[in-house]
Design brief:
This protein is mainly alpha-helical and 675 residues long. It folds into 2 domains: 522 residues, no CATH class; 125 residues, Rossmann fold (3-Layer(aba) Sandwich). Helices cover 63% and strands 5% of the residues. It has 30 helices and 10 strands. The strands form 3 sheets. Strands 7-6-8-10-9 form a 5-stranded mixed beta sheet. It has a 3-stranded antiparallel beta sheet with strand order 1-2-5. Helix 1 runs parallel beside helix 6, helix 6 packs parallel to helix 11 and helix 7 packs parallel to helix 23. It is globular and about 85 Å long. The mean pLDDT is 95.
Length: 675
């Protein structure tokens, strides 16, 4: 009875902290709409898990249900959208269709060993959820903030957050398959399914809810679900509530020694410690040592709700194999195949990784039992939904067939200073994992499934490379999977230390605490830097903060009010490069005839097209006009980058006013219409 007031207080505290985080990113109308939409979307998943459980209590439903609901809801919403359905009713229809799985889900009762809700779960999970407001609340409060200089976006967000803006804007325009805003006449070759809910929201509510509001509401909600999932995953392996919570907190808050290294390095060189504000702190292993960067989970909370949904539904599929109660169970493998297929459709590369891990795990199981019949039954049951997911990926246009995307080769960046780079990037977790080896060897609770994931991750890390991402893409996915797995391992280690009577117990605890504290500076610096929109210094390839000037905001407003949503605009993609590569699609909400998107692969056609279109700003006026017509350009925008890279460009365009009349002009932006 004594725990109830404490649990209630913890739940109230977590709720207030979460509400405060939501309140700083959105106004009342957008917040109400966004939260209700999210709630409707997750409820079917919660009830599906509730139908599967047999007396385990609320924990399995709340830990795994929300992200299951998100994944299934995105899939159904996508099918409805591609079929031509439009309107706000989709926000109800999608979850309603998913809810149709609740009744058949009851037939799956007893097939998995799910965590039984314990008295300490409420307080442990509630306190753990407070991490989300602590990590993202401050940075999110400054996203798109209006200042005297204009509207500011911290540069950390331009690769993921600004890209999400562009994708959601295209979805909201309503094409059955979203149009590629960087290549005229093409569909969007990108895994856009996880953005479907926000696309429908913005399509319906753009008049009274800003895109930033809707995106950040979703980010906070998904982050909360993710932390709950990690806790549930640890409890799935019977880690006690307090240890599960501490294990999850460890892997979110302390995964890297890069912050400590930077502080030590600057101190030894008499450089002011405040200079860490000018570092991409969780990528020092890349910039200083030319290795593959491994981002901590705090960055997953900052930028990547779409990957969170893909990771977690894939892990649900993998765990469905590991904790099944029947050695031969076609139904369990069919469910696993559905979850893995959803992962591939939502976050394709990560889904492929976790699917290979599932195959490896079951292959080893078949070898151990020498039961070929089991292997055939399970392979067929899982293969059907997986084949369907591959068909969906191709049908939705994810794959650009203009060139290779993935290569199987030794990644030399992965092997460069591997041990030092790995220790720097993952040191705290590596130390904890090494300490946990004796516990894992003696435990009856098998975590072999994470071994399969680790082996798969290492194979991908060294031998699989995603082209046109500077040979570093796999590091992000591998690191995230390893850190998520480590939450379970560290929880088990903490349990062992707590009950140990060995004289080394204080030493073990001390080492673990020191490792955690040594990794904490990276996350703290990262939180500060991610919110710091006052830093206008130059990063290696762009300014630390992207500022949309008042002139640009005025031009974007004019564009949105005076041009068609499908109008093609053009800037010089090479002059802008990494500074404002998503400038027009993400903020003006207009497509480009050709752009240079850093998130699209293969890049060759974009590079070739950009090199050709930039001649428009250099050649004779009539030749430029003819080039624009051939490229189907409707408007040419000239801003400071074009003016600097192509002196006299406005004089040339002004000389053919009949063909390219000046449609808009303010202090720094000129827009020419192509007649």
């Amino acid at each position: 009875m004594r725990t109830r007031p404490a649990a209630l207080a913890a739940v109230i505290l977590a709720a207030l902290a979460s509400i405060a985080s939501f309140a700083v990113v959105a106004g009342p109308l957008a917040l109400g709409f966004g939260l209700v939409s999210q709630a409707i979307f997750i409820l079917p998943g919660i009830f599906i898990l509730r139908a599967i459980t047999t007396g385990e209590g609320w924990l399995p439903s709340l830990a795994f249900g929300p992200l299951l609901g998100q994944a299934l809801g995105c899939f159904v919403l996508t099918l409805l959208w591609v079929a031509g359905a439009r309107g706000p009713w989709l926000l109800l229809a999608g979850p309603a269709i998913v809810a149709g799985l609740i009744v058949p889900a009851r037939r799956l009762q007893g097939r998995w060993r799910l965590p039984v809700t314990a008295p300490g779960d409420a307080i442990a999970l509630a306190l753990l959820l407070i991490i989300v407001p602590l990590v993202v609340g401050w940075p999110f409060a400054h996203v798109g903030e209006l200042t005297a200089d204009g509207q500011s976006y911290r540069a950390y967000f331009t690769a993921d957050y600004v890209w999400r803006r562009a994708v959601v804007i295209e979805l909201a325009k309503g094409a059955p398959l979203p149009v590629n805003p960087y290549f005229a006449g093409d569909v969007l070759h990108y895994y856009w399914m996880p953005h479907m809910l926000t696309g429908v929201q913005y399509h319906f509510a753009r008049a009274w809810a800003s895109l930033d509001e809707l995106l950040l509401i979703r980010s906070i909600a998904i982050d909360l679900f993710f932390v709950g999932f990690l806790y549930g995953m640890a409890r799935l392996f019977r880690v006690r509530p307090w240890a599960a919570a501490l294990g999850v907190a460890f892997v979110i808050l302390s995964t890297s020694f890069e912050g400590l290294y930077a502080l030590f390095d600057y101190s030894s060189k008499n450089i002011p410690l405040s200079a860490v504000k000018n570092l991409n702190i969780d990528a020092l292993s890349r910039w200083n040592f030319q290795g593959i960067p491994i981002d901590g989970l705090q960055r997953l909370l900052f930028y990547q709700p779409h990957h969170i949904v893909g990771y977690t539904i894939g892990l649900i599929g993998l765990l469905a194999l590991a904790v099944r109660t029947r050695p031969v169970d076609a139904a369990a493998f069919a469910v696993s195949g559905v979850c893995l297929g959803l992962s591939i459709a939502i976050s394709s590369f990560a889904g492929m990784m976790v699917t290979v891990a599932a195959m490896l795990f079951e292959f080893v199981g078949v070898l151990r039992t020498r039961d070929i019949r089991r292997g055939v039954i399970h392979a067929i049951a899982a293969a059907i939904p997986l084949a369907a997911s591959v068909a969906v990926v191709y049908g939705l246009g994810y794959v650009d067939r203009s060139g290779s995307v993935v290569e199987l080769t030794v990644n030399r960046v992965a092997t460069h200073q591997f041990f030092w780079v790995t220790f720097l990037s993952c040191g705290p977790v590596l130390i904890a994992a090494a300490m946990a080896i004796p516990a894992l060897m003696s435990e009856r609770r098998s975590v072999a499934v994470f071994g399969a994931l680790a082996v798969t991750s290492m194979f991908f890390y060294f031998f699989v490379n995603v082209l046109d991402h500077q040979d570093v893409y796999t590091g992000w996915r591998v690191g995230h999977f390893m850190f998520m797995s480590a939450a379970v391992v560290i929880g088990m280690l903490l349990e062992r230390i707590a009950v140990s009577t060995s004289v080394t117990q204080p030493l073990q605890l001390g080492v673990l605490v020191i490792a955690f504290l040594a990794g904490l500076p990276t996350t703290l610096i990262d939180i500060y830097n991610t919110q710091d929109i006052t830093n206008h210094n130059m990063a290696p390839s762009a300014h630390w903060t992207l500022v949309l000037s008042p002139d640009e905001l005025q031009a974007f407003d004019w564009i949105q009010k005076n041009t068609r949503p499908d109008a093609l605009f053009q800037v010089d993609p090479l002059a802008r490069d990494s500074e404002t590569w998503a400038y027009l699609p993400a903020f003006a909400e207009r497509r480009m005839a050709i752009g240079l998107p850093i998130s699209m692969v293969p890049l060759a056609k974009y590079q070739q097209g950009s090199e050709a279109i930039r001649n428009l700003f250099e050649e004779s006026p009539l030749a430029a006009y003819e080039r624009a017509v051939r490229a189907r350009v409707n408007y040419v925008l000239v801003g400071p980058p074009e003016r600097t890279a192509h002196p006299g460009v406005e004089d040339r365009f002004n000389s053919i006013a009949n063909q390219m009349p000046l449609a808009f002009k303010n202090g720094s932006i000129s827009i020419y219409e192509i007649h």
